[in-house]
Amino acid sequence: RGLPSLPPEKTVNLLRLTCKHEPQFKVGKVRPPPVLLAAGREQIILNPRSAIHHGRGPKGYELTVQEIADERAPPELRYIVFPWSATALALSWRIRCRRSAAYQVRLHHYCPDAHAGSLYELSVNREKRTGDLPGTGAMPLDHPKDFRRFKAVALGEIRLKKGMNRIAFKTLRMKTSYFFTFFRALVLTGC
Question: How many Å apart are CA 61 and CA 53, to the nearest integer?
Answer without folding.
Answer: 12
